Every structure is written in C-alpha cells, then in structure tokens.
Amino acid sequence: MLLTVLWLQGQVAVEQNEVDFIKSIYFKGQEYAGQFPLVKLNETFTLSFDDLLAQDNDYYYRIKYYNRDWTPSELFTNQFLGGYDNLRIDNFQSSLGTLQRYTHYTLTLPNERTQFKISGNYMLEVYNADDELVFSRKFLIYEEEVQVKAGAYPARDIANFNSHQNIQFTVTPIGFNVRNPQTDLNVLLLQNDQWDTAFFTPPPQFNVGNSYVYRYDSLTQFKGGNEFLYFDTKDIRVATPNISYVNREEVYQHYLYLDVPREREPYTYFPDINGDFSIRTFQGTNPDIEADYSIVYFSLAKQYGLNDEEIFIYGKFNNYALNDENKMIYNPSLEVYEGILYLKQGFYNYKYVTRINGKLDKDKLSGSHSSTENNYLILVYHRAIGSLYDALVGWGNVQSFELKN
Fold first, then answer.
1. What is the pTM of this model?
2. pLDDT digits over 297-337, tens only?
3. Cβ neighbours of residue 311 closer than 8 Å, sequence gap 6 or more
4. pLDDT tens-digit readout, 264-302
5. What domains can be seen in the chain, in order of their start residue?
6. Cα(296)–Cα(344) distance, rounded to whole angstroms?
C-alpha cells in the first residue's frame, strides 16, 4: 500500500520565506507548544516579525484556504472568512535600547475585522505597500470532534530497529458518524512540525467499537534522526554553554564551539526543542522590542565533500529553508566548514544537513537513532457528504522520549 506523500503532489501550496531584512517570524497559538499555529476554531493566535529597515513600513495580510493536501480549495473567500482581509498590520513598535534598530510587528487573529468560519488548512500571506509578497506561513484551525490516542514504538523490521520510530494510534469520533472509514477519515502525520516529511497514512486497519485503529508496522514510521544542537544568547554579553567567546563591534558577535559530525557517534540524550527557537533577553523585560541581534559564527570540522555536496545550518530560525544565508563555506586553511547567521537574542536549536544533487539528507552528518526524542502530530481530516472542504476535526500528539514495546 502506497502512502500519500505531501511534498510530491503537484500544485501544493508552499510557504514563501522572508526577504533578508525580515527576521524572527514568530507564529504561535495558545494550546499547542512550539511555533506551530494549531488553534481551536475561534481561539486567537499571534504572528510577529521584525523589520530591520526600521522605517515603520506598511504591511498587509491576506488569508487563503486549502484542501487537506494543500491543493487550492474551491471555496470563495466569504465561505471560510468573516469580515475582511487585505488589511494593514497596525500594531508595531520600534526597538528599545538595541544596537540593531528594528520595527516589531504583531498581528493577532481572529480579530474584530477578520474571523474564521470553518476549520482546516489556511495560509497567511504578508505583502508590502507595493503589493509584493514578503512571506507566507501555514496555520491550522481545528474542531474537537475526534479523540486521538497515540504511542511511539521502535521499528519492527530489523534493518530499521535502531534508526526509525513507528507511530501507532486510534481515532475515536465524538461528533459525527463515520460512514466509510476507508475514505471518510484522512490522517496526516508530522514529525517535529516539519511539512517536508509529512504524509497521509493508509486507512485504519480495523475498528474496536467506535474507535478506528492504525497499527501499521512500517507504513507509519519515520527516521529518528538525532537531537538538535543548541546555543543561548539571552545574555548577549556572556559566553554561555556552547558559545566559545563574545565580541562587540557595531553589533555583538557570538562564536560557537567547533562542532563535529555525529553520524558515527553513539546516541547521547540532551534536551532540545526539536529545531525550534525562543526569543528572550536578560537585558530588558520585553524581548519583542528589547532583545538585540548578534552575528553568530558556526564551524563544522569536516573535510571538503565531493559530488557537489552542500552543507547548511538547519532549524526553525528561518523556517527550515536552504538558502545562501545558512549555507556553509569550506575554509581549506582550517579544514572546516563555516557559516554566519544574524539572529535575535534567544535559545536556538540547529543541526547540520547536506544537499547533494538537489536531494536533502537531514541525517548524514547527525546520524539517526530510534532513541531520539521527537514530537509527532496526528491531524485528522473529514469531508462531510456534499461538503466542499476538508474539516480538521481533531488532533493528537505523542513524544518518542519513552518508546513503547
């Protein structure tokens, strides 16, 4: 049985990453931890970002709706949106006491001008005054019509036992009847909130009463990967763990300790936030406008790769994009790869990934272990008879910190 792999479908909506003067896009709901905007219908969530031009520019937001597989929806705007969009973001503040001047923008939705009528997949797009797309981000609105219980298990096949994790779960409808479980329920699995490896599962194997059971051995498994590396710049003047030393010129500079590839190292647990980041500062009480920016220097001890191998610094700090900003350059005199990022004060996760002939490999330099702590989201969609949209009727999540037998 073949899985529906999200990123291989044609005409699938993808997020537009920010231009170079837009930084620290922070998109968060109320209930779900981390920067993954998964919110209950009528609950609020917040988008914030910094403009390093610091000119109080005008930005406008628009909202689009998509099917469960992120293909364009047939709905008209007034069928999923109440009020208006294409409105100016009018909540902004200038930075206070920072070496890097910036303007901090905040948008809270829903608000008195914009409301959401239905659950499902949405995209928020931000445009400048010239009607140019600056960036876009996905967000999800759900209803509570199913209950999801899940567990993480080691892979059953011997070849993947030490490197993969398998997700098994049950879905119990509480707000509607399932007429045909083979087609009515569509379940999407995500690892660490990353869309590039998300996939739709096969239909449930069987039901126990009103609960539908997904207990596949290999069709719902992911590579475990490895824990993310981290650093913390909340005290911008101090060399905290994993920061070798700090320098100040026009702005602060943080030099991280030399990293080494971990693909042949045994698994070692240390807490991470699964690629995410959190803005914070000791130099003020409001990190939105009082956290400063610094240049962060990365170095990886690795000989020059052949076969057009490219190495990137990878994390939520730029929405997991691979671009010139986070691409590393080989320094032959030191035999290391070096990279530079301009980041706002806070706690950051990152790892090193490779791209060869256009193909991303997240684990070549880090290794993959079944013991790695990962977070998994289970999203349940349902399209009612005669409906033109896929409602997100519930979700569940599970962490693989303690694998079940």
1. 0.93
2. 999 999 887 778 999 999 999 999 999 999 999 999 999 99
3. 300, 302, 305, 327, 328, 337, 352, 353, 354, 355, 365
4. 999 998 889 999 999 999 999 999 999 999 999 999 999
5. 4-142 (2.60.40), 146-223+374-399 (2.60.40), 229-361 (2.60.40)
6. 10
